[in-house]
Amino acid sequence: MASCSTTLQDREHILASLTKYNQHLTTIIQKTADDVIINPTEPTEDKFHKILSQLIPCLTECYQAIGARNSLEFYRNLNIESDEVSAVMKKMDGLTARYHEMLSKVDDVIQNEGPKDLRLSEIILIDVLTNEAFSFETILQQKKYTILVVLVTFNSIHEGASWLERTPTDYQLLSDTHKHIYKLLNMKRSYYKTWHSTAIHYYTEKLVNNAKLIKPLIHDDLEQTGGDVILDKSCNILYTHYSEATIDRPTAEELLHVVNSLN
């Protein structure tokens, strides 16, 4: 743990890693953001993803330099009697605020229009394992279930099958490649939610603690937000939880409590 007794060599290592992180934030804010805001095309977004993703290894170096395993320890261990460290941390706070503002501006130019003249019950989904097509209404009206849990992905059948190999589940996985459900439920694409500093810290914590991060699928849309929805058999929406961040999901217990309260 870093402390007031930190050696000069350790302090220089801490300063170097924090400075590198600040420089990367500055690059994102000053250069790449304008390209995405002015010309939000797929190649430009790919370039943006590449530079955004480098924040995680940069922050990982900072964590390792001060011996932190989570964000709480990160800030606690930086409580060092050093004007230089204090100045770098103050700069980081300012850059992080500007970084969040930039992400919000990018969100403003992302197209999030929903499908016109289409009802939730009419949306056609493809079972990833069987390739069978179902209307959403048909899926919900299966009489053998009191409660039916289904997973919906915007990925293709092939990519969905690949995801199932890496993340086995007994639940049915349905493909909605046109994102009709996402758009009807107003689940928008968002750089702010998916690349917020809290998400960067979350993935950094995973790496520092030797967790293996799942690589995105080939045609994954990293900015597509999701959520959890409870519907009745007539496709009436009874409950919706919109994820405010990549890791923001209600627990199974919370969802069961909602279901039980509706009966």
From TrEMBL:
InterPro entries: PXL2A/B/C (IPR032801), Thioredoxin-like_sf (IPR036249). Pfam families: AhpC-TSA_2. This is Uncharacterized protein. The lineage of its organism: Eukaryota, Metazoa, Porifera, Hexactinellida, Hexasterophora.
